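Today's session is about reading a structure prediction critically. Students often jump straight to the picture, but the first step is always the sequence itself: look for stretches that repeat, for charged clusters, for runs of hydrophobic residues. Only then move on to the predicted structure, which in these notes is written as discrete structure tokens rather than atom positions. Here is the chain we will use throughout the hour.
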Amino acid sequence: MEARVGALGAQDESRASSRVIELGARASAPSGHVALSAEQVSKSFAGVKALHNVDFDLCPGEVHALMGENGAGKSTLMKILAGVHTSYDGVIQVEGQAVLFAGVRAAEEAGVAIIHQELNLVPELSVADNIFLGREPLIAGLLIDRRRMVKAAGRLLARLGVRLDAESRVADLRVGEQQLVEIAKALSLDARILIMDEPTSALSSSECETLFKIVRQLAAEGVAIVYTSHRIEEVLELADRVTVLRDGRRVVTAPIGELSRGAIIAAMVGRDMAASDRGAAAADGTVILSVKDLTLDTLSPHGWRRMLHGVSFELRRGEILGIGGLLGSGRTEILESIFGVARGWRGGTIAIDGEIADINAPADAYRLGLALVSEDRKERGLHLAASICDNIALPSIGALSQFGLRAFARERALAREMVGRLSVRCTGIGQAAAALSGGNQQKVVIGKWLATEPRILLLDEPTRGIDIGAKQEIYRLIFDLAAKGLGIIVVTSEMPELLLLSDRILVMCEGRQTGLLTRESATQEAVMRLAAPGMATWSQEEA
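Below is the predicted structure for this chain, in token form.
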């Protein structure tokens, strides 16, 4: 029987509208005061236990990170705290009072708001409309007081320190700006407890910095923040405490200063990942890819713009070459130019095994033994509605066909081989790609290209948006492929990942190569010094 204590009644709607319009800043609560707590919370779905007697607490002004692999129970706990799930065992308390939320609206009335990873905005409506959707201030209880609503939305945005027109259409905003609209919407509820689910998963580096600044500002004002993320580095930078869940159980709760990156990973998956996990390298000095004086000009609304300026490098058999740099530095454009999918005018030469390669389309790259795992798996890597089998077989259909007809038995055999080889967790090869977790979707994308038996593998952000456990598996796969002689180029925005995977690192800044670092000379400081505009000075090989 599920324990329940207390309940929240619905507040008067007109009073709520007045409250959100006249929102003001709060002072921080006394140290040690608990804003929210969960005691012995358990939850099952169809007989499967998602949470096992989990305890969790949150103080005013605290950023408390909630971490764990997919399936660890993070989302379930967040949804219970936010009133999405209303049936569970255990007790939830807000400001020391036991509560039973009848739904999300009841949680919001208690000052608890959640910002989901998939933004819950109406694209065709304005910023102000989205902030106060369903809670619009009225004139005489009949007409929406638009002037008052826009003014209130402007005050909320100003509090966040962002310059957005409250009457702008949300569809015209960048993803980072839409994330800020979601935060403003939560503040309009006078939220004292803010739950943020993977808020940086789709943001650029600069947008992340803006978000971090706002999170710190809100915490300084006394807002209690639950922050979930797969990115350990940002948790180490932002959080005051960390709670790790594994298999629905709380493994550890500790101040951030007491946990290292390795300790957090070990708590999540049972072990850390180190460069020593890489097997014997197969690199023998044989150059399999040579890029010389690569340029790329693209057409923008303001005319032609040069994206790459004379980039030159070599890739050896069995080598993992990392490409580092800030967003917009030209990293992705290098991979797309090599694979024949870059939009614009490409100059320079690309050679495979010493022979000049004429690559004008992916089909040319495919015939030469190249494969590209693109940055956006959902838009460019997968047919989400199609099965795992169809996705894996797609690039190989021609090679598998017999007498001009599709060989479905061969396609199924290939799919089963790749699913087994990459340990894709699924119900079968007929399962739709859309039904898989992010990590397993990424394995399917990698698997469809490995099925073509490439010699050169281009990986653009191969672990973006997937959990630590899936990352570890992909790291081991990359090491294994290099050990078997593949030449691999990896573009990643995560510095620890770049340093872990790479034998050498080509650093880019504003379309120009600024350094080539060996594993021995590559440090976070060395990469950032070469990647930062105005600081980068070319060095062919750092000692």
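Discussion point for the tutorial: Residues 373 and 446 are 6 Å apart (CA to CA).
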